[in-house]
Amino acid sequence: MSDPQAEARADVSGGIPGEQPAQARAGAPPAGDAPAGALPAGDAPSPASLRASSVATAVSLLLVLAIVLGSRVLRNFDAALLPYAVATVFLAFGVAYRYMLWLSAPASRCLLRQARRGVFFRVRALFSRASLSRARHPLRTAARQRARAETRATARAGGTAQAPAFTAQAPAFTAQAPAFTAQAPAITAQAPAFTAQAPAITAQEPVFRERPRARRIAHQLLLWGSALAVLITFPLTWGWISFTATSAAGPGYELRVWGYRLAGFDALSIPGWALFHALDLAAVLVIAGAGYFLWRRMRDRGALTGQRFAYDLVPLLALIVVAVTGLLLTFSSLVLRGGGYEFLALLHMASVVFALIYLPFGKFFHVVQRPAATGMRRAAHPAAPAAQDGAAVLVCRRCEEPIGAASAIEDLRTTMRELDLGFDEWAEYCPRCKRQLRGAAYLTQVKKGYV
Amino acid sequence: MMGRTIFIDPGRCIGCRACVSACRECDSHRGTSLIHLDLSDEGHSAASLPTVCMHCEDPVAPCAEVCPADAILVTPDGVVQQADPTRCIGCSNCVNACPFGVPVVDTRARLQMKCDLCYDRTAHGLAPMCATVCPTGALFYGTLEELRAERPGVRVADSFAFGDVVLRTGVATVVPADKVDWPVPGGLPVVEVNGVDVP
Question: What contacts A247, CB < 8 A, 6 or more positions away?
């Protein structure tokens, strides 16, 4: 280990430094950083690989079909955007292939089971009698809960003698009820707003809840900048949305989705300008977010530890190149009167195609993988709501401290047996007891009375 | 066993917790100590045992094998890294599968953390923080030859037994000369008498 980083650099294969997750190293399908399709020469593809190829091919064909149908049999398809559309088909293949391989590993299958169970607990909790009762009588339930909380607080304070005083106040509380009832429509009106926020909260909450604010903001900028760009460009390149001029003189335009007219607008109005420059806004968001992370990766000593160029830096650089070349296109048309536009368009296209094809194999794949954390919250940890909802919690066989949800530990033991890790029984001991038992074994069997 | 690695000698550990303090200095988990110091027979013996990640080699890193998110990567030189924060989903699989009780999970941040042999230092030829400050040499960093130059005749073992399973590790343990030929017991109780585990 004289210079491991040099070794890591020397061991670059497939564009990714030689670090590999152990699932791939231990003979499981290559589901990690290494390009998933890279099978050793002469080896027959595994069943998991074949299944992944089949699913990925089906997904790609479905996308091609959707492009053909959505663009009204290619009538609205813009041939100039063909390379982008082809790149998205490759992207669909790569993501589906890698996702299927990822799920074929024993540990990932276990995760899927846990996530399904997590969803089950949520749905069950949502339709439980208490939940339905709360939904039917929100104000009555809230008042009842408040009364219970007050009673508990009174009891804690040793104030049972105060009970008559509270009873005396009861008519006053009852008198407030109409006021609460009057607020109900306002509360109900807020519901869509909360519902609309849910995806945003879900997307971000498990990822950065405990991270520094600057990183949270930068990640939001990067996420929403990328999402905005994807939502605009993908349907455009597929011919799903198109803009048509209402008259030869302009400036009226029509926005058509799948060939159907959705809205008409004036290209010179503020909404029209914003619509045509939404990608510039997305580029600014992406440059701000990715620029911060790039700056952090140059300075933060924690981030510098074990940082890999291909995995950690290339995605950021790719996003910045895509965004900058995109902005330069606008700059060319607005300031240079189209000077250098063709070269810039080619550069932009090359950078976008590279980023899309790289997505399934590098850090970008966390966009697909990471949402599993939302299912995990309920499933695995002893403090998880699933455990509190009544699911059994396994305690350490030695010290009886909680280890985790019994179902999650059982899943883990199954996974360990599938991986030939024959000490799965050890999973029923807490980490501290494992260490203490090992120390005791050293003390009694290896170096008796070693102090 | 890796070429340059940590050698643990529990017989030398005095439980001073200098390693625990020094571990907080590691740049990859600044402010959080990830080395464990346990008392093996508290109240009866002064024996203490420092635990760093043993960087399992065969089977390779059980923590990484059971990771559903491919978050734990192994470097070409055999160092098992702590979970990649962009991938880790905080499922605790690694915590419960590790036979040595090494990884911890920050449940609020939903992230796994573990000793990575101070990769920010060892990658540049420096000793890990714990071995740098250990006053008794219970944690030694170097090659086996360097250890033997300091402690002539010392014997080490790099395999542990958990029931029928033998695990070979990148980090080695000092053992008496007559215990070299068999794996160090990992502590997994193999017999249960009247509901009580017997090691």
Answer: none
Residue A178, preceding peptide bond in cis (omega within 30° of 0): no
**CATH number for position B130:** 3.30.70.20
Are the C-beta atoms of B174 and B8 separated by less than 8 Å?
Answer: yes
- Whether A380 and B91 have beta carbons less than 8 Å apart is answered as yes
What pLDDT tens digit does each residue of chain B (199 aa) get?
A: 778 999 999 999 999 999 999 999 888 888 899 999 998 777 788 889 999 999 999 888 999 999 988 889 898 888 999 998 888 888 889 999 999 999 998 877 778 999 999 988 888 889 999 999 999 999 999 999 999 999 998 999 999 999 888 999 999 999 988 777 778 888 887 655 555 555 5
Q: Which of A328, A320, A325, A281 is nearest to A297 (CA)?
A: A320
Q: Give A427→chain B minimum CA distance, Å.
A: 5
Q: Tell me how far apart the alpha carbons of residues A388 and A408 are, in angstroms, rounded to a whole number.
A: 14
CATH number of A27-104+206-372: 1.20.950.20
**Pick from A384, A301, A350, A422: nearest CA to A122:** A384
First to last CA, chain B: 26
ipTM: 0.93
Contact B177, B9 (CB under 8 A): no
| Count of domains forming chain B | 1
Interface contact B141, partner A, CB < 8 A: no
Selecting from A3, A412, A442 the residue whose C-beta is nearest the C-beta of B49 gives: A442
Place of tokens 């091919």: A57
Cross-chain Cβ contact B90/A373 below 8 Å: yes
Token pair of A209 as six digits: 């809840």
Residues B67 and A351: beta-carbon distance below 8 Å: no
Contact state of B27 with A301 under an 8 Å Cβ cutoff: yes
- Classified as helix, coil or strand, A181 is helix
CB B167 within 8 A of CB B2: no
**Residues 99-128 (B) with a CB less than 8 A from some CB of A:** 99-110, 116, 119-120, 122-123, 125
Contact A3 B123 (CB under 8 A): yes
